[in-house]
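User: Structure tokens for both sequences below?

Assistant:
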Amino acid sequence: MTSILGAVLLASLPIVTITGLLSWVAYGPNFGQAIPADVGWLHLPAFDWPARPSWLYRLNQGLHVGLGLILIPWVLAKLWSVIPKFFQLPPVTSIAQALERISLFALVGGILFEIITGVLNIQYDYVFGFSFYTAHYWGAWVFIAGFVVHVAVKSPTMWRSLRSRSMRSVLTTSRARTVPEPLDDTGLVAPDPAPATLSRRGALALVGAGSAFVAVLTVGQTTGGFLRHAALLLPRGRSYGNGPNDFQINRTARAAAIDPHQYGDAWRLTLTGTAGGVTLSRAELLAMPQHTVDLPIACVEGWSTVQTWTGVRLRDLADSAGVRRLTSARVDSFERFGAFRSAQFTADQTLHPDSLLALQVNGADLSPDHGYPARIIMPAIPGVHATKWVSTIDFREA
């Protein structure tokens, strides 16, 4: 049983880990805006996060958060199956066993820390007294270290155990015919076991059913449809009605301390480039060629939603600023507080034909909570980089 549970986690936890690390890359470490910014020799290979396909970040985070939640019953079952090992005496009898115990501490401590902080982060806003992003990143590497060592040490035992009994026999053996494993050197078999109260197939069915139940409460955050209303584990991933602006919001205008005077008639967008400063009112922006596109907002918390956006292409605004050989662009918001009041983008992201300074959504003006008078919307970017309440765009040239 322990080996079956371990095999499931061996196949799936690397997906959760890799998508989590890719999310760090998507934030743009090349611009110093990934969190944490300074990771020393744990810095991942640098590459520009692609702007195609538009659903890339949506898929990445949907897998990371959704699969992470779905695996919680398997993680708990695996810990239950090996719990006698945590209390064995003497705790260490050799150097090899000491290495195994240290890796087990990193593995169990790391995965529990990642699960607990991850679940709390998607349930509550800024519940921690520390940076969730920083703690989650370092916690991931503690888990990775423990995982790699544990797999290296335990793989021979796992494969030997899996070969000792066919999966077919496990799934066809009833509780009445269930017998204990013979004593071995793993220390997991009770020396005097009580009669079986649950078959092995029953235990697997119980864990699988728990996982399926979590999936029902999770998957709608990404797929949408009728299951979105069931996304109870991701409260900001559910629907909020049927109006043009009734979709998910992580941060309201009030929470960002936005003053209504800031987005009144006096608001102006400033473009900087080789032509110097160009200032445009919202009316002047609306008079420019408008482009409409369906694009997702995909949050690091795992939820996503696809809406229809209308606005001015960023590449048209770069032309207005006199920039012909764009290398990057920096967007600033007029919000006064928040770690994501500005964002930087690569040339490929900025010049993508669907990258917009959005003025409307679903045929209506943006609401203040959704970034009125103007916000950024781009393919495949983290939701926090879809900067709201834009005040300045600095187009940079080679």
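Moving on to the next sequence.
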Amino acid sequence: MSAIDPRTRLLLEAPIVPTVLRLAAPNVLVMVAQACAGLIETYFVGKLGTDALAAMALVFPIVMLMQMTSAGAMGGGIASSIARTLGAKRRDDADALVLHAMVIALGFGLAFTLALLLGGRWLYAQMGGTGASLDAALVYSNWVFAGAVLVWLFNSLAAVLRGTGNMAVPANVTVVGVVVLVPLSPLLIFGWGPIPGMGIAGGAVALLLYYLGGTVALWMYLRSPRSLLKPRFAGVRLRWALFRDILRVGLVGAIATVATNLSVGIATALAGHFGPGAIAGYGTAARLEYLLVPLVFGFGAPLLAIVGTCIGAGQRERALNAAWIGGLMCFAITEAIGLAAAAFPRPWLMLFGDDPAMLEAGTEYLRTVGPLYGFFGLGQVLHFASQGSGRLFWPVMANLARLAVAGLGGWLGLRWGGELVHVFAAQGAALVVYGLGIAAVVAGGAWFGRLGWPRTTTALMRRIQPA
């Protein structure tokens, strides 16, 4: 047992609104910068033609699956475990969790590499890839997933720091990396002087170099005197109890992540019935939805730390209040973005190409789904907050309900002779189910194992207080 660190005390005692805003600011920066890394790459790959852009649309849901699993799901499990451990004043266990997190990252990184190198062609063909777009997708995919371990290590080490309430260091590392990526990506894609152009593979190599540099920088910080945690390898025994504490949150969260990306993958496959232009249009437009994930995660990561630390210290009401405040903030922000995209879809789409079929499909998606983005933001941030509580069963059920509505609704729409807009309408309805579903179960006491429907937070607290 040890005294509470000032950063941990901030999570337990400081006013919620300014604390969330203060911690979210650098975290939003890091997440938006990380998303921009993918957008930069897509921008330059788009210059290679519609087949290359369609190839990116095929691979992108799988890359985002890895990103969201490593940073959001398993990263959430890592951050939650460290936050709850620090809240309970178990500093030695918190230090030991760093090594356990790295072991998990190595295992999952290798699993992604093997799965996509062996099964990539089949997967992308099932998603509608054919001909030149399928060939380009395989080139890009093979390069990216050969270095999957780097992505996992980077996101896991960043999650370790976020679990302590430190949002600034991952932000600084990511922003510097993106600044380097801006010239590096076109250099490797198109070549310059003695450096030969690698085409679509160059974008993947640039991305991996970004993650390599970021991983080294985060590890150097953790080994420095400024780090709250003191990770070490010598004398540390791997313990199942610590693995379990991470995995019980991370694996359940991964189900939700798979469901989110599977809904996009299914929509991509359904869009494939209308040709490569429709795939490129949907994939390009849906990148805005994916961009909302890191934006919301900017708020979700500090909420996860606050909720986890407060629950570890027995402060349940503060944990709930923080979640609702963050939920309202993210609903407002993402709804505003969605409405703007629905009103002005072409400026976003024109960043990546001007193919008429791509523009038509992308515009249809943004006008149909954009006005419902607020529900996506609400669901996402409450999911991250739920990771801090260590209880994800009902939030994951809400995510699976989203998958069912998106997949089944889109398939039925096409089966009954519908158009592409009916596929997108199902996606929009799924977001509403997702956001309201998670809000309902959190309000009903899902974090504390007594699901019901109190009308107020006070009523909820009366029910969950121990007898």
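User: Anything stand out in the second?

Assistant: The mean pLDDT is 83.
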